[in-house]
Design goal:
This protein has 11 helices and 13 strands. It is α/β, with parallel strands linked by helices and 304 residues long. The chain has 2 domains: 2-215, Rossmann fold; 225-287, Alpha-Beta Plaits (2-Layer Sandwich). The strands form 3 sheets. The chain has a 6-stranded mixed beta sheet with strand order 5-6-7-3-8-9, sandwiched between helices. Strand 11 (251-255) and strand 12 (258-263) form a beta hairpin. The longest helix has 16 residues, at 165-180. It is globular. It starts with a strand and ends in a 6-residue tail after the last helix. 38% of the residues are buried. Its main location: membrane. It comes from Nocardioides gansuensis.
């Protein structure tokens, strides 16, 4: 579905994407993770055939975006980070009129509009104006609108940003249903739990290059441990206490408010901490997550 080799995107002397290789297979959910400025959005715009490639090779659906842009865009669905709904139209017309842009016959668009209203659970809001909808409803409508042309490839840029947990989980369920129906998904997200839930494979981008690639589970196995023991001591004590526990795990990370001990047996770490006479104010054991991998690869400091 997507093949990139040495893909580059430059803006003057600034290289936003610096020679990445990407393969996206039919029917999978593929994720792009990375901090702000990592090159995710520039990559997505090239994949959407709305931003020209600066170097390397890119094929979308087997086509060259430099020469086949309209043919590619006709087979894509795009859900942008910001909702771009028509506020002057009601919910049904947002779908119907958008479908007509693709030249889809009126009768077919009406049928698809009804199907997508049901899919987005907005049938009872069909005559409501966009401004009357909640944030979650607007996102569901935006995703529904991106499906009006029955795309082979659906691009989702930060699909659940700003939503409450209930709305996020509802959207996850709908996206999972789309994948089960054979739609190929390409997702950018800042939510690590979202990537773990939705993505079959993903790449972690940083400063325009790919730092790691694989399934969420494979990345956790490769770059982290099975569990993490979190130890909280008094303010200012963590730096000095790190040396006393550094042999208890594969790696110890010092944060301003806690120590993270990466290990395959967190309960054993807690027991040994107490054996050494150390009494943390609070302690917990959790499984390693994609967030641990992400922060190890891209760092905890904010990018400029």
């Amino acid at each position: 579905m997507i093949l990139a080799r040495g893909l580059r995107k430059s803006f003057g002397e600034f290289d936003a994407v610096r020679g990445i290789d990407v393969d996206v297979r039919r029917g999978e959910a593929f994720g792009f993770l990375g901090p702000n400025g990592a090159g995710k959005s520039s990559t997505m715009r090239m994949i959407a055939a709305v931003s020209p490639v600066s170097g390397g090779e890119l094929r979308i659906l087997g086509l060259d975006p430099a020469t086949d842009g309209p043919a590619i865009r006709a087979r894509l669905g795009v859900c942008p980070q910001e909702d771009t709904l028509d506020n002057e139209l009601n919910v049904r017309d947002n779908l119907y009129i958008y479908g007509r842009y693709f030249g889809i016959p009126k009768a077919v668009v009406r049928e698809r509009t009804d199907e997508l209203l049901e899919f987005a659970m907005l049938t009872d809001k069909a005559k409501a104006k966009v401004e009357e909808l909640s944030g979650g409803m607007k996102r569901r409508l935006t995703i529904a609108r991106s499906l009006i042309n029955k795309p082979d490839l659906l691009l989702l840029d930060e699909p659940t940003t700003g939503l409450d947990p209930q709305a996020r989980h509802l959207l996850w369920d709908q996206l999972f249903r789309l994948k089960q129906a054979g739609v190929t998904l390409v997702i950018t997200t800042h939510y690590m739990d979202e990537a773990e839930q939705l993505c079959d494979r993903l790449v972690v981008m940083d400063r325009g290059v790919i730092a790691a690639e694989g399934s969420p589970l494979d990345l956790i196995r490769q770059f982290s441990t099975r569990e993490v023991a979190e130890l909280r001591f008094g303010v200012g004590e963590h730096e000095s206490l790190a040396a006393k526990v550094e042999d208890l795990g594969a790696r110890v990370e010092v944060l301003p408010d806690r120590l993270l001990v990466y290990t395959d047996d967190g309960e054993e770490v807690l027991a040994k901490v107490h054996e050494r006479g150390l009494e943390p104010i609070a302690a917990l054991v959790r499984r390693s997550t994609l967030e641990d991998v992400f922060l190890r690869l891209t760092g905890r400091s904010l990018a400029d």
